[in-house]
Design a protein that fits this description.
Shape: globular
Number of strands: 7
Order of helices and strands: EHEHEEEEHEHHH
CATH topology: Lysozyme-like
Largest sheet: 5 strands, mixed
Number of domains: 1
CATH superfamily: Peptidoglycan recognition protein-like
CATH architecture: 3-Layer(aba) Sandwich
Bound molecules: zinc ion
Length: 184
């Protein structure tokens, strides 16, 4: 089937990589990671999470989950497992962050949002998908909180990158500090 939508997700963790999520999803009994792409926050592992270590070069990295090519057809090996009822007609992108296992919110980084925008502008162009068809998981399944950021503001941001300020939550105390700042 052809790709109609791109679905945004969050990992609901303060840390992670495609490799780490591949482990989590295999533990669910799946054969591999369910997302097509992962955008990392620079905190790759639980050890780094505990130590509050954020690696700048890993902040806003795009990693393959289930890789896909640039045509509009989802082939069997490209088909993700991320949005029940929509997997054969969509791609799934996971932003590391959101809610941790204890219900505490974690900020996504500006670097993640900027990279997500670069990726989505490209994908929507190549795959001929309007920005209105970039949706959040909870917009398809209202029982979900995922992706834990405001999708209306996110879609505005795709058109106006200066609107990044509306996506980053400054109201909440930041849990994570930059490694460089930490050392000062
Ligand atoms: Zn989701």
């Amino acid at each position: 089937m052809s790709i109609e939508r791109i679905v945004m997700h969050c990992s609901a963790s303060g840390y992670g990589t495609a490799l780490e999520i591949d482990r989590w999803h295999k533990a669910n009994g799946w054969n591999r990671i369910g997302y097509n792409l992962v955008i990392t926050n620079g905190i790759p592992s639980y050890d780094c999470y505990k130590l509050k270590l954020r690696y700048p070069w890993g902040n806003g990295q795009v990693e393959w989950g289930r890789a896909f090519n640039d045509n509009n057809i989802i082939e069997p090996n490209e088909r993700g497992a991320h949005t029940l009822g929509l997997n054969s007609r969509s791609l799934g992108i996971c932003m590391i962050g959101g809610k941790d296992g204890h219900g505490k919110m974690h900020d996504f980084t500006p670097e993640q949002f900027h990279k997500a925008r670069i990726v989505l502008v490209h994908l929507c162009n190549v795959l001929d998908i309007p920005f209105t068809n970039v949706i959040g998981h909870r917009e398809f399944n209202s029982a979900k909180e995922c992706p834990c950021f405001n999708m209306d503001k996110f879609r505005e941001f795709l058109v106006k990158p200066q609107n990044i300020v509306h996506l980053i939550d400054h109201g909440e105390e930041r849990v994570w500090v930059n490694h460089e700042k930490d050392r000062r």
